[in-house]
Amino acid sequence: MASGNTRRQFLHNSSMVAAVAALGMASRAVLAKKVRGFEEYRAYDAMGLAELVRKGDASPQQLLDMAVARSEAVNPVINAMVARYDDLARAAIQHGLPEAPFTGVPWLLKDLGIAMKGTVTTNGSVFFKNAMQDHDSTLVTRYRQAGLVIFGKTHSPEFGGTATTESALFGDTHNPWNHALSAGGSSGGSAAAVAAGIVPAAHASDGGGSIRIPASACGLFGMKPSRGRVPMGPGVYETRNGLSAQHAVTRSVRDSAALLDISQGPALGDAYASPPRERPYLEEIEESPGKLRIALMTKPVLPVPVAPECVEAARNAAKLCESLGHHVTEASPMLDIGALYNALGVSSNLVVVKKVGHREKALGRSVRKDELEPITWQGLEAGRKVTGIEYTEARDSLHHASRVLGAFMLDYDVILSPTMAIVPPPLGAMSLRQPYDDFMMVAAAASAFTSLYNMTGQPAMSVPLHWTDGAVPVGVMFAGRQGDEATLFRLAAQLEEAAPWFDHITPA
User: Is 0.85 surpassed by the pTM of this model?
Assistant: First the structure.
C-alpha cells in the first residue's frame, strides 16, 4: 500500500511545473444558467457538456470546478485518481481553448503508457514514481486539439499487468457499485472515475482487455479499437507486439464514437494503420446496422469455467439481438490455444523487460527487486530469457490467429460473448503481490474472452446490458472484423436505444 505522504504528494503535484504554477488560480466563473450542481452535471455525457459550453449555458471553468469537487468527494473512498493538475487545467482555460467537439469538457488520462509534458507517468510502479515526461504523446496533443481539459490521471496496476487496479504504489481502486469488489483493470481508475461521476468519459488503454474488463465491472461502454486505429507515438511504435490499443471508457455510445473520431488516424511513422473509416463514427451511430449475422460464443477459447451470470448476460443479449432482427448462431473459431497463449505470455513479459530497461538507462542503475511487484519481477526474469527465435515465433502465432479469425468472420459480422468469464471479484483476487498460481487462476478467467481480440487486432466492445441481483454490472462483448468499428458502433447505438443504461448509475 502507498504511504499517505506519497499519495498526497503525487495527488497535489500540479504545482510541479513552475511556469504554470506562476500563473496562479484562475478566477471562479459565475454559475451558468443550466448546470447548477452535481446532479445536473452528471445528467450530461461529454458531448452534452460540450454543447452547454457552446451555447453559453456553462463555462469550462464551471465544469472543471464540478469535476474537481466530485473527485474530492469520492476519490478518498474509491481511489480512482492518483494525480491532479488543477493549475494546468485552469491555465489551459485561461489561455483559451480551441473551438472543437469537446471544448471545455474535463478529462482524465490513464497513468500508464502515455506522456504529458511536465508530469510524471508512474505506470503504476514504484520504479517509475518520479518518471517525469519531457514531451506530449500524439494522443494528448489530439485531446487538447479537441478542447478536452486534462486535470488529472487515473490509477493503473503496475505496467497494466493484471485485470484489477491495485498497486503497491497507490493502493486499491474500489468499484463504485460495491467497494469490496475490483473495478477491473488495467483501466480501473478511469472506469471508477466515470462510474462515480467525476467525468463522463476518460482515457483508457487495452492490452488484454483493459478497456473492456473495467467497463464491464463498472457498468460502462468500452470500445477497444482496431490495431493501429489510434496512434501510440511519438516515442512508442507498438506495445506488447501490437496487442495494446488506446481509447476510452464512456457512459454513452456517442461519446465513444466522437472521441474515436478526434483521436483516430495514423501518425507519421506508425508501425500499424487500420483501414480508413468510410465516414465519421458519430455519423455511423445514426445508421441502422442492418440484419447482422452474429456468432454466439459462451465458452472462451481458453478452457476456463464461465460464471452462470456471465453466460446469462450473453444469452439475454443474444435474445435482444434476435428481437432487433439479427440472426444469432452458436459458433466458435478453432485456434491453436497453446501457441496463442504462449505468444501472449512472451509479448507481456517482453514489454516488462523493455519498460524496465528504458528506466534503468534513464536512472543509470539496475532495478531492485523491491521496486517491482512479485509477479512483475517474475515476468521480468522470464522475459530476459526469451530468444530472438521465440520472439519471432510469438509474432507469427499472433498473425496466424488474425488470419484464422478473419476467415471465421467471412461467415459472421459480429461475435457475441460475455466480456469476462467471472463477475467482478473481491479486491486482492488478482493482485500482483500474491502467489502466481492463485493469481493466474482468476486473472485468466477475467481476460479469457477479451484477450483474443488483442491478439488478432480486431475491434471489440463491452456493452453494459446486465446487472446481477446484487446490483453488480456484468458486461457483454461484441467483436467485429478488423477495421470495422463502424458496424460495432451502429449495433451499440441500437442496443443503447433498446436497453438504455445511461441513467443506471452508482449509489451516491
Answer: yes
